[in-house]
Design brief:
Structural class: alpha/beta
Low-confidence stretches: none
Strand order of the largest sheet: 21-20-25-24-27-26-28-29
Number of helices: 17
Largest sheet: 8 strands, mixed
Helix content: 25-40%
CATH architecture of the largest domain: Alpha-Beta Barrel
CATH superfamily of the largest domain: Metal-dependent hydrolases
Radius of gyration: 24 Å
CATH class of the largest domain: Alpha Beta
Number of strands: 32
Mean pLDDT: 96
CATH topology of the largest domain: TIM Barrel
């Protein structure tokens, strides 16, 4: 009732909840204010001197608005939405802008609906964006396709909040008709449209923004971030598992432009959520890199709320939702309390809620459908003795093209004595039998194979090895477990099922993390360089919208020319 809000605000009655004796970050003035915070009916009704029915003594601590992740793929945690919520709420995150791009590529719109419905069973507020690029390009086989007509149909669904990252930036700039339909549908619906345009600048960037795209999380360096902000975009400072650029790109933040930066995690694995944290980790990294702590907090709260039109969120002020994170300080960002709409949902690193039974509809189960695969399926025949090879770059999803001399014997490449591995993408949605083959340098695996069904963004089977037999065995194990992660060395096979769309596990977070870390150590024991996260690093090798060369189920792909290329080099 409005009357009760007014009475609590003016002090005629005790507020339901008061945070006493602490301070808070005022994101409107850039100050740290010493004051009590009064909460009534899930709303902040004032700060100053207040008494509450329930009081929390936060002396020596600092309250900030509840953190908002500006762009995340929940699927990349490899946890169910319920378990993801239990991991991030104790870290101070109360709202996420979720792009279910991964599961929608596997299961279609039913995948996006699953994320929304499962998350709704938790206190975490999840704003689901409609994926804009399913598939990401026309050069791969995904489990589903969302056309311009589909976008027009689904953009107004109650569980959809906006249009997800528009990765097909060439399609925007060159006015692809389907891209135009999707963007027009979002414009008519009045939705925010997220961007994804690495290294796009000048007039190309002007065109991309003019199409109605508001944000970008793919800035390579501070100069790129500065240009995009100067043209009115909001730029995400990203601290994920595979890609981390907060420390580098926060150098672009100034007093004049700081209101145009946000924070996101994009892709963050469960083990990192447990060991390092979520947006609290991004804040630590930013402050350690020299970013003003209040600017960092503002980026992770008010800026995101304003960009995504989250009314009543992002600040500690009268009339705002009582979404509050209480930290010990603004350096280490250890979260003591998390409140969501006035309810205490986490304390001292522990979630204070539980979801006893996972929501697991049939639409997201049993998603691996593979054609016939044998050892001979992985024979790679070259015309000459030189090959175009994918080379990994540490701490980045960008790859580079190198040319290497490669010997052949009996119609197959010879890998022994080299640092090269055979890589394959096996189509797993429709049983087409498509297998794209390539070569990878710098990964370090010896005498075995590794495979997984997390392969952005179409999520076919990514398999890597130095012999055909183990590669075939890895695919067979993937089929047996219904999707997941596998290591093979001869008869020694280890695996971990990802029973939700081949992307996520329905296991409790702690159990999943333990088992995934065990599998990770087995992978490193096979010679994989610890410079790379053994599985997550592979998952981006099929991402055809990130330079410079990648692999799809249809062959080797040159991202710079946006066309297929021969593995044979001149």
């Amino acid at each position: 009732m409005i009357e009760e809000l007014i009475d609590a605000a003016i002090g005629n009655k005790k507020a339901e909840i008061v945070l006493k004796n602490g301070s808070f970050v005022n994101v409107f003035t850039g100050e740290i204010v010493q004051a009590d915070i009064a909460i009534q009916d899930g709303k902040i009704v004032g700060f100053g001197d207040y008494e509450g029915v329930t009081e929390y003594d936060i002396a020596g601590k600092v309250a900030v608005p509840g953190l908002i992740d500006a762009h995340v793929h929940i699927e990349s945690s490899q946890l169910s939405p319920e378990e993801f919520a239990k991991m991030v709420l104790p870290r101070g995150t109360v709202t996420v802008i979720a792009d279910p791009h991964e599961i929608t590529n596997v299961c279609g719109i039913a995948g996006a609906k699953y994320i929304a419905d499962a998350a709704a069973r938790t206190p975490l507020e999840v704003k689901v964006m409609l994926p804009s690029c399913v598939p990401a390009t026309a050069f791969e086989t995904s489990g589903a396709t969302l056309t311009g007509a589909d976008t027009e149909k689904y953009i107004r669904e109650p569980f959809i909040y906006g249009l997800g990252e528009f990765m097909n930036y060439p399609g925007v700039i060159y006015k692809d008709p389907e891209c135009m339909k999707k963007l027009e549908a979002a414009r008519k619906a009045g939705c925010v449209v997220d961007g994804h345009a690495p290294s796009t600048s000048g007039k190309g960037l002007n065109a991309y923004i003019s199409a109605g795209i508001s944000t970008d999380h793919e800035c390579i360096d501070p100069a790129e971030a500065t240009e995009k902000v100067s043209k009115g975009m909001y730029v995400h400072l990203r601290e994920g598992s595979a890609t981390r650029n907060v420390a580098k790109n926060c150098k672009a933040v100034t007093a004049a432009n700081m209101r145009r930066f946000m924070m996101c995690t994009d892709d963050r694995h469960a083990a990192d959520l447990k060991g390092k944290g979520h947006l609290d980790n991004a804040l630590r990294v930013a402050v350690q890199a020299g970013m003003n702590p209040i600017w960092a907090v503002t980026a992770a709260t008010l800026n995101t709320a304003e960009c995504y039109r989250l009314r009543g969120k992002g600040a500690i002020a009268p009339g705002y939702d009582a979404d509050i994170a209480v930290f010990d300080d603004l350096k280490d960002f250890a979260c003591a309390y998390t409140f969501k709409k006035g309810k205490l949902v986490a304390k001292a690193g522990e979630a204070l809620f539980d979801v006893k039974e996972k929501f697991l509809p049939e639409a997201v189960k049993n998603t691996v459908h593979v054609g016939q695969v044998s050892a001979d399926s992985f024979k790679l025949k070259l015309k000459g003795k030189k090959a175009n090879v994918i080379r990994l770059i540490r701490n980045n999803v960008v790859t580079e093209r190198v040319v290497r001399k490669v010997e052949s014997k009996d119609g197959d490449v010879v890998l022994k004595g080299t640092d090269l591995l055979k890589m394959a993408v096996v189509e797993r949605h429709h049983g087409t039998g498509n297998i794209g083959l390539g070569l990878l340098e710098g990964y370090g695996l010896k005498d075995g194979a590794i495979a997984l069904t997390i392969a952005h963004d179409s999520h076919n089977i990514m398999v890597l090895g130095d012999n055909n037999e183990d590669m075939a065995a890895a695919v067979a194990e993937i089929r047996r477990i219904g999707g997941g992660m596998v290591t093979v060395r001869g008869k020694e096979i280890h695996s971990l099922s990802l029973d939700i769309a081949g992307l996520m596990s329905s296991l409790p977070a702690e159990e999943y993390i333990r088992r995934s870390e065990e599998l990770l150590e087995i992978a490193y024991g096979m010679g994989i360089s610890r410079e790379f996260e053994a599985f997550m690093s592979l998952s981006f090798l099929g991402l055809l919208v990130i330079p410079s060369i990648k692999l799809s189920d249809r062959g080797l792909f040159d991202v710079n020319t946006f066309s297929f290329m021969s593995i044979d080099a001149e």
